[in-house]
Amino acid sequence: MTAMAPILLNNMVTVPDQSEYSKHEVFHTADQVHVKNPHLDTMEEDILYHLNLGTKTHNLPEMFGEIKFVCVGGSANRMKSFAQFIHQELDLPGSIDDITDICEGTDRYSMYKVGPVLSISHGMGCPSISIMLHELIKLVHHARCHNVVLFRIGTSGGVGLAPGTVVVTDKAVDCFFRPQFEQVVLGKVIIRSTELDVGVSKELLQCSSELNNFPTVIGNTMCTHDFYEGQGRLDGALCSFSTEDKLEYLRKAYNSGVRNIEMESTVFGAMCHACGIKAAVICVTLLNRFDGDQISTPHDVLEEYQQRPQVLLAHFIKKRLGLIT
Ligand SMILES: O=P(O)(O)O[C@@H]1C[C@H](O)[C@@H](CO)O1
Ligand SMILES: O=c1cc[nH]c(=O)[nH]1
Predict the structure, then answer these.
(1) ipTM over 0.85
(2) Which residues lie below 8 Å from residue 25, measured CB to CB, with a gap of 6+?
(3) Phi and psi at residue 31, in whole multiples of 5°?
(4) Of 100, 159, 197, 219, whose CB count within 10 A is highest?
(5) Could you tell me the CA-to-CA distances from 322 to 77, 85, 104, 250 in Å, in that order?
(6) Which residues contact residue 127 at a Cβ distance below 8 angstroms, ignoring those fewer than 6 apart?
(7) Residues at the annotated binding site for phosphate?
(8) Is residue 299 part of a domain?
(9) 3-state secondary structure of 194
């Protein structure tokens, strides 16, 4: 791979995706995770601190080697109910009450394993999911998993969509509508592509048409670093813009192809893409941001909305496992 020249942007050195790996590319077979860090090979032990797991303390291949589907989402409760739901959907032996949190020794993240499915919470925002993904991707690597697909199942604000619509992300874009994620590394901005897997997204859309029980669309997902001002909300503790400014920004977003807004998709796409992992983002919209900012929908309705990405993903997993045709 040829290293590309750094670009000077806003007085910061910006390095395009991949160039930082070029000297130390570690080769794997096509279906394995590409952990692109030569230092890992020199370490006697790798402690996955925030997951409370490690290469010396746990037999990671034995614990996780069979994993094929890794599902992540913000809330610990959601990821526990997803694990219980998928246990029932796959008709696995044992009771759902026996599904315990593998990361119980830490209160940062929660992780549940159900047959070939791993369900993990990531908290809110890019820094939180990024820490979890570093450790999760190393976990999948140390466990020698093959053909793993990663999914984010989340909630979002809709842009021009009825509440309850499920959005399968086409491009994960930043707040300037660019399909990229910027990571500052040693004082330089590294730009990474947020590309998701087109084939997996198409399969998900096919699944939604088979289910035919809630609206599902494909569209761009805008990822912001804040829920309030960062998403153009007028109801935060701070707000420096007018209603018209907000609507103009949302219209621009809509015209660029954005259909929903959340807070993790760009770094999720960037890290999976850089590590050669097929990935998709499935988020339900809780409201239409053209109609307001506050989430005032009753709790039971929100609960049902949150289950929609789970229902879609369960169908996908069952098809992939050949349990349904
Ligand atoms: O997966 P979740 O539902 O946590 O994703 C969105 C983005 C933020 O993390 C959070 C804001 O309410 O919801
Ligand atoms: O509006 C919303 C709703 C959920 N999550 C977000 O990030 N934004």
Answers:
(1) yes
(2) 1, 36
(3) -90, 5
(4) 159
(5) 28, 18, 32, 41
(6) none
(7) 108, 152-155
(8) yes
(9) coil
